[in-house]
Structure formats: structure tokens, C-alpha cells
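FAQ: What does the model actually see?

It sees only this:
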Amino acid sequence: MLHRTVMHIDMNAFFASVEQAANPELSGKPIAVVGGHGRTVITTSSYEARAKGVKTGMAIWEGKRACPELIIVVGDNRKYTYTSTKINEIFQDYTPDVEAFSIDESWLDVTHSLSIFGSAENIAYLIKSRIKHLFDITCSIGIAPNKLLAKLASDMHKPDGLTIIEPDNVSSILEQMPINELCGIGKKMQRHLNMMSIYTCGELGRCDEARLTRKFGIVGRRLKEMGQGKDTTPVVPFGKEDDVKSVGHSSTLERDIDDPAEIRRFLLQLSEMVGSRARRYNVSGKTIHLYVRYADFFSSWGKQTTLKQYINLSDDIYRTALSILNTVELEQPVRLLGISLSNLKHQAEQLPLFEEERRKLFATQAMDSINDRFGSMAVTFGSLLPGKEKAGSHVIPPSWRPEGVKNIDVK
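And it is asked to produce this:
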């Protein structure tokens, strides 16, 4: 039986590290990267700031309270997406089996590359050296028999770590490891398992499977396997992912808004962002979901509607989202808006039957063509023209990928 050798590569404090590398004046200083001007939360902080208690998700004022000398840097998503894309290209020099987990994390299956490069450890050092030389940033790498353990290993020694979990050492490493260290066990699942007196991976791996399935259904078996360090999930290379289930975008607004006209304007902008990606990858959908978060941050709602026909034109997405919004009386000013298109199908190229619909399609195709060539919103709807302001902070979503339908325009 061939044992797999999987690497998980996690860029250290990625956004902050990229900013420090781009601006030597920030090197060695406590900085926090935020998604935009105004009141956005901290998306990441440098290790110098983390040492002072600054954490991801803090409001700016909380970060300043923890570290008065904290330097706030507005994120530059172009730099991050460019750097991430180039780093993933480096990975493909060592194996075609590269799966981007997020903008700053990837898995590599190097099983069939070992005969070329000697060992996984050697590959790791080559990758570290190239990233440091080209971008002046560091990464932590975990090497293990599967994706679950490789992710666990990369978290063990940060920053700039390299951790190897050998197959023979899995049981001893997991015995006293807290369950929340495993990727896939969040706070809610941890609470449920703790209520069953399960606190460590060793205890989870020894737990009776029937007991777990009674509590969690079919997930119970997977939980037991996780506790034992088992994971047969393959590394899925670019272009071989399962068909995407939805196309969506959300944005935290620069300020809370309650003006209906302004809300409609941002809805139209988000609809164009969703529609343009759906059209680029030739998918259309029947279900539109609208998500709203209020100014108090904690209150939110989401509603969806399913149409009889498939759509991907921005105007159709917008009108459907607006019809959902009109069924709700907003209780507070709006902080965040999100739209997604789901219930998807790949569509064949087909002209609409009616002349008016054909004109709208041709106009949309012309706008897409210009925007693909000259950049997002080079041509846009008239109501979006004044200033061409973006809808909000544009924090890069966790679903971002270097290519494909999840390659969101984050300018």
C-alpha cells in the first residue's frame, strides 16, 4: 500500500507580512491590516502586534487599546491576490496536485515527486527558500500522511515552522491533542463533544462509533476517524474541483446606511459582481439569496426566492434581490449586504427569442468584454457612475481561489 505524503503550506500573517515586505518602514513594527477606511475589523495583524494582544476580528479601537502604538494599514487586495497566485505557481513546480484552501493556505500531494526531489523535507525547504527570496515573507509547512494531519502539523510551529508527522507517530501525537486543534471541529462542535466528556483527539478516536452517530448522524463516523488521524480526502488540483454550487458576493459597507436609494445602489453593484462572474463561467441559476446584517453587527437575516427560469444577467439578479428586500421592513441601518446565485446549471449559448431580450444580452456581453479587458467597472450602470465607489471594504472572502469561478474580483 502506497502511503501518501501531503504538505500543508500556511503563509504566516499573510496580509501583514506582504505589507511589511512592500514597505520597509513597517518591518518589525506592530501593524494591523483592515479591509478599508472607517470602522472595519482587523483582518490580520503582524506577529509584533499579536505579541501585544491584537487579534483577528477585533475592532480597530480594541486593537488600539491592546497596543497603543498599533499601525493601521488599509489592505491592498491586488497585492495579496497577485502574491497568492504566484506562490501557488511555485507549488506547481514540485507537483501538479495543488489545492488552494484559501488565499494563504494550500495543500500539496508530493507522493509522486519524492523520487525527483529526494524527500518532502527537501521540497519544503526549497519552497520556503523561494518564497522568502521572491517575496520576503515566510510560511509554516506541515508534512503528514493526509490533509487533516498536514494541516495540524503546519499549525504546530509558527512562524516559519516545518513539522513532520510520521505515520508511526500519529497515535502518540493525537493522544493529548485538544479536539479543537483539528481542522473541521469548530467551537459549536467542540461544545457538543465536551458535553460527551470528549476533550482530546485520543478520547474522540476511542469513542464508540454508535454513540457518535446517535448524536451527530453520519458525521459521527467521520469524527471518530478524525480522532484517529484518518483522512482519505484527496488533494484536488486546480480545474478538477466539483462543480460550484453557488456564485455570491458580500460586502461590509464603509458606513451604516438606511437610505433606500443608497441600499438599492449597492444591491445593483453586488448584482453586477455576481452576474459578471456567473456569465464568465457560463452558469446561470434559479435561486437568489439576499443577506443583510444590521448596524449592531449581531442582528441579521437572509431570505431567498426560486424563480421559474434560470438567470445570470445582472439586472435580473438585481430585480429579484430587490423584490426580496421589499418584503422586509428594515429594523436598523444596514452594515453588510450579500447576494448569491444558486441552483446552478451550465448553459449552452442560445439567443433569446424576443428582440428586447437580445438587445439586453448583447449590451451585457459588450460590457463584460470591455470590463474583462480594461478592469472591473470600466463600463457600468449609469446609477453606479458617480465616483464609481465600491460597495465596501472588500475583505477577501475565504472562498477566494487563484483561478476559476471563485476567483473574485477584489479590486
